[in-house]
Amino acid sequence: MRRLIELAKIVDGDLNHSPELEISGVGRIASVSESEITFANSRSHYDRFLASDASAAIVSGIEGITDQPIGQQKTLPKAVIVVADAEAAFAAIATEFRPVIERRTSGVHPTAVVASTASIGPDVTIHAGAVVMDGAVIGDRSTIFPNVTVMEDCQIGQDTTIFPNTVLYENTVVGDRVILHAGVVLGAFGFGYKSHTGKHELSAQLGNVVIEDDVEIGANSTIDRGTFDATRIRRGTKLDNLVMVGHNCDVGEDNLLCSQVGIAGSCNVGNGVVMGGQVGIGDHLNIGDRSILMAKSGLMHDVDPGQAVHGIPARPARKQMQIMAVSSKLPEMRKMLKQLSKSVEQLQQRSASVDQCRDAA
Amino acid sequence: MRRLIELAKIVDGDLNHSPELEISGVGRIASVSESEITFANSRSHYDRFLASDASAAIVSGIEGITDQPIGQQKTLPKAVIVVADAEAAFAAIATEFRPVIERRTSGVHPTAVVASTASIGPDVTIHAGAVVMDGAVIGDRSTIFPNVTVMEDCQIGQDTTIFPNTVLYENTVVGDRVILHAGVVLGAFGFGYKSHTGKHELSAQLGNVVIEDDVEIGANSTIDRGTFDATRIRRGTKLDNLVMVGHNCDVGEDNLLCSQVGIAGSCNVGNGVVMGGQVGIGDHLNIGDRSILMAKSGLMHDVDPGQAVHGIPARPARKQMQIMAVSSKLPEMRKMLKQLSKSVEQLQQRSASVDQCRDAA
Amino acid sequence: MRRLIELAKIVDGDLNHSPELEISGVGRIASVSESEITFANSRSHYDRFLASDASAAIVSGIEGITDQPIGQQKTLPKAVIVVADAEAAFAAIATEFRPVIERRTSGVHPTAVVASTASIGPDVTIHAGAVVMDGAVIGDRSTIFPNVTVMEDCQIGQDTTIFPNTVLYENTVVGDRVILHAGVVLGAFGFGYKSHTGKHELSAQLGNVVIEDDVEIGANSTIDRGTFDATRIRRGTKLDNLVMVGHNCDVGEDNLLCSQVGIAGSCNVGNGVVMGGQVGIGDHLNIGDRSILMAKSGLMHDVDPGQAVHGIPARPARKQMQIMAVSSKLPEMRKMLKQLSKSVEQLQQRSASVDQCRDAA
Fold first, then answer.
1. Residues C200 and C274 in one domain
2. What separation in angstroms does the CA of B244 have from each of A184, A235, A277, B96, C332?
3. Least CA distance to C145: which residue of chain A?
4. CA separation for the pair C223, C227 (Å, rounded)
5. Which chains does chain B touch, 3 or more C-beta pairs < 8 A?
6. First to last CA, chain A
7. Does C147 reach chain A within 8 Å, measured CB to CB?
8. pLDDT (tens digit per residue) in A32-68
9. Is residue A187 included in any domain, yes or no?
10. What total number of domains does chain A contain?
11. A97, A308, B62, C336: most buried by Cβ count inside 10 Å?
12. Is A92 within a domain?
């Protein structure tokens, strides 16, 4: 519990009333409870605050309130702390209630198993139960959380964080400032088989996975090794949870791949691409720079740079929207079609009888 | 191997014949082999038993058999054990062949690493290789299986089971009688980015994950932490494997979320909702109480309470069924449309010639 | 760095020129850089090599080059090493630059925790942090990588490889020459519930998972245990990453299941089946031998042997292709329909006026 006046001081804000109000925590407007503080940085947001259970909010950018002296807000129905940037101030207060864990460099935990041939940079932390196998290199200030497995000859850059229970197969290369969340698997075998008389024989697995600088990969995502060379995720690209990137793919820079996206083998994805959740991409496709693949799309063809696509099969998004709109009228269209067919038949009969009649005349 | 008469005794049932028959195990009707025993609790089930390889079944609720004295069943072609509840008796016999593992409270394994600042309740079991970090609290009688990682300040309730290799990020809160299956990841970073000139900067990650009482979460599912406050799964909700719940979501009570469901950030899901496999839900949507989202649906809009929806984009299920039925006639409709178009053109020409003719007359 | 002439010797090939060229590694034609060597085994592949950054390639099967004496190739614009099988030679050179890790049998690592009641065959390797619980059996020459958890009474065959952080629940049976990639979970509870007044109670979890010989399972895939007996994956079947197989399923021999496929409970899948990525199969369905389920299909009905299906709902692929083609014309069809409707109305009016006219005459 913190008094409202204390919170106002922390964010250097102006409080209108109720300095002694006890606050138990922070809550977004959609889920805030009575004793929590929320924030509002627009009129509509502020109106939702008034309608919510919350008795206090941090506010900014609301006409008639934040642009007036605090003295004039004393009659407002609920307590507000006026600041310059409500979201930033809200974040500061959130950390008051749930402090960010400060993790200090703590070296190699006695239960971690680090091969004598591995090379560990200065100020690296390797937590309990982590295993670093022969020839692996871990760069300065990187953190390996508990129960991570780093297999032979992996190279991990500087200031990289690998969360618990993640697995890097042999020869995986990871850049600087990379974040690998828990349960990520890099470098498992590519799903390539040669089939003889119905039996499937695994193809070559001689490549590896290369993750460039500033990439972030979500929990339980998997990226398979290349057949001969690298499956590559380029600088600055972010993957959400449970994403699959197949063998030999080259995924460009600064992409955003939402949860449960699946990319089959040997695709080339450009830079600045955005993929919605559960998108699937067939193998050997080229996805152009800055293209947008809308959620759940199924790609069977290349995508041009800058293009937005949608649907299964994926089509230009505008076109797909039209198709979806018309689809919802399909039952009605079918009825109409049947009726038209009947009308035309009647007209044809009449027309024939008119002809007959004329012929007879 | 067990003799049939022994099995009959175990379930206190009446056997018609073949007491010395040797039984090697149990098998459902769909996969039972000759030496196994199966069960039937309906006439159709019983008929499948007769047609199967099995030589014996536990039966209940079959007219003309289970409602007659066992003496009259001696001439039946296959051996049956008549009981009051065939499925329950079948379960009892299954445990004869594959006994349920009895796991006793065994304290903290010497290779588990439990921080001195962690608080461990009475009768807790922490298995080999599990790591419990600073400030974590584990309630009475809970079980932490091998290679689980519980990060700082997590709070785990009583009688909760965490299967191997699961990861709880810092500040995760888990209730009583919760089951987390292997490979679950709770509290990884939410997939929220602010993009400046094409670069993506991670948003605040100040929240946590709250799992209420009696929730069960399937293998390798992932639930991301909230931006400022909690991503929450409410009491009694069950998640299947490989499910993704995005940051800031509030998932209500007693839901069933089938495998590979993905829910994007900041959704509010009501109580008693059922989601089929591979459903995807766009961000910031409201899913009403007791609604049903059919398998593979893609949600782009809110769903009303009690509504059943289906399709991509999701529409009322009844409507979508109609659309799907008509869709299958699309090629035929197009042909019909072309033909009609031709017919109408002909009629127009004739009509024009009739007019001409009339005008000429 | 290797000189080109050295590489030619390794693969016993004929080099046309540039013996002293320094090569830094291998690259597929799609991603090769200037200092790397690539390969070409067709004319079109060779043309791409000429257009690429690469200065050298291993070649076979290219008319006018590989069928001519090497002496005649001296004037070719780029260096080539002519061999009998370019892909095989390329693989050999790939291993020169990134040697395959040789892992020797190394027994049980001191930090592995193996129950005294477990039975470990000769020449088994159990790596650091792996946990093998009571009664488990591990066959000859099998390898258990770090941080794997093998629960009670599991039976693992010979020459089987279990990559890091994989989990086998109690009673799981795994055959010979099986590969389980990192993060796989076998035997978690089936998603079966009995619901009373809106609450969900877990059904029996008495079965197990059986993985037959020569099966390979991709990273983070999950297979749930049967209710009473086995969920079974039969001999030679290969699963890609993030695949879900529900409880009681029986998946036949020599199948290929691509990434993110989900199979609901109690399905029977035949032999030689191929499933594309993100396919979903409803519960209790029968999928015939050698059927093909195209990517992203949603199965609501059984599939006949040899049938190819596609779409949501899945239909015969040929039919679905027609439907998809016509779908793209839906907006145009609707316009056409409206126009036709108008034309027919006009024709009806005219026809009526003709009739009137005739009646009046």
1. yes
2. 14, 25, 10, 37, 38
3. A149
4. 13
5. A, C
6. 102
7. yes
8. 999 999 999 999 999 999 999 999 999 999 998 999 9
9. yes
10. 3
11. B62
12. yes
